[in-house]
Every structure is written in structure tokens, then in C-alpha cells.
Amino acid sequence: MLSDRDRTKLDPSDDRAFYDAPRFVTHADDAFLARLTALYDSVTSPGDRVFDAMGSWVSHLPDTDYDRVVGHGLNEAELAENDVLDEWFVRDFNADPSLPLDDAAFDAVCCALSVQYLQYPSDVFAAFARVLGPGGVLVVSFTDRMFPTKAVRAWRNASMDGRAELVAGYCREVGLAVETVVRERPGGDPFYAVVARHAPSDG
Ligand SMILES: C[S@@+](CC[C@H](N)C(=O)[O-])C[C@H]1O[C@@H](n2cnc3c(N)ncnc32)[C@H](O)[C@@H]1O
Fold it and tell me: What does DSSP say about strands 68-73 and 132-142: parallel, antiparallel, or unpaired?
């Protein structure tokens, strides 16, 4: 979906170097994060297997008894601090967009406040779709904050609604059906989320 120009970043240096030092901060206000937790609560159930992609030291998940929560991010110290994760791995998706995870291993994939950094979203979303089982849900949330030097040009130049269209397009391109696009302002930060699903199995 992105042209070579669309995927350029102001800072083309290695993303792992940018995330070398841990940041034990949150990247949106409390109202945004509470709304995100409520959204996760509405689309997941106890016993689900959850993958938190592009994560950090906090996953914003509700206090639900999930079967398995796998995390991914760019900083080991942040992920080690995240106490909802059963396991985690580090991978720069702009260098390697694949996932070391089995097909159909998850009921939900979450990607919070991070999609703007993906230079090859088609490949990463294809991997998200691959690891989701039948009927599985993908939740991609974002606000208008970002590290601007690391966000792709297409994102920097788009309106908030344009960004929602971009994310919905990433989902549709890999065969996920867009179920809802949430556009709200629960506090100071706009709350946007695209909720997309795999078709349920025929059986
Ligand atoms: C603003 S933080 C959001 C972290 C977390 N999802 C949250 O809600 O607090 C951006 C995150 O995007 C991820 N990220 C950024 N660039 C990445 C890249 N090139 N490959 C993989 N992940 C990346 C990192 O995990 C980083 O912590």
C-alpha cells in the first residue's frame, strides 16, 4: 500500500538504536489508555491467546485470565518489566517483518500506538493475519502523538481520518474484515482504533 516515498522516515537510522534505552512512560493520556483497555475487554474473553505486538512495559489489557500473552517490542528491559507477558521477543519489523509464532496461534493481536513506525505494513499485517485463528481479532489503536522522526511519511502527512483509512487498508489488503473504526475523544488525546477480524472457520 505504501510507495517507497511513503515509507521514508526523517531519521533513517537503525530503529533498534532509537529504542536502545528503555522508556518507562506511557504514550497517551489516562483516558485514552482506559478506553483502550475497555475496547480490549469487549473483544477478548478469558482463555484467549493474545499477542501484543510493538509493545513495551505495559500492555493496557484488562485483568482477564488469558491463556497465553506473548509480547513483542524493541527494548528488552521494557518487555522484561511487563508483568502480563508470559513470553516475549525483540524484532525490528522494518528489518524483518516476520513473526516467530505458529499459524493460527492467537485469538487476538493488539498493536497500540505504534503502527505509524511500520515501513512495510503489508508484510507485518500479513504476519498478524497468519498468526490469528479463525474469527480472531486485530486491534490497532493510535492517537495524534508520535516520534515524528521515526514515523513514515504517509502517516506524518495524513489527517487522523486519513490514518484510520490507511490502517483499514492495511487490514483489508491481508484479508481481514474491518469491523469497527472507533473515533472518540475520551480525554485530551483523540482515541482511534481499527478493529478487524478473520472470517470464522466454515466448520
Ligand atoms: C510509542 S511506543 C508504544 C508501545 C506500547 N505499544 C504502548 O502502548 O505503550 C512504540 C513502540 O513501537 C515499537 N516499534 C517501533 N519501531 C519498531 C520497529 N521498527 N520494529 C518493531 N517494533 C517497533 C516498539 O515496541 C515501541 O515501544
Answer: unpaired
**Which of 14, 18, 19 gets mutated to test ligand 1 (max ligand atoms within 8 A of its CB)?**
19
- Angle CA 19–22–26, to nearest 5: 100
Domain ranges of the chain: 15-197
21-72 residue pLDDT tens: 888 888 899 999 999 999 999 999 999 999 999 999 999 999 999 999 999 9
Which residues approach ligand 1 with their CB closer than 6 A?
15, 19, 26-27, 54-56, 58, 60, 73-74, 92-94, 112-114, 117
CATH code that applies to domain 15-197:
3.40.50.150
- pTM exceeding the 0.85 threshold for the entire prediction: yes
How is residue 193 written as a grid cell? 482504533
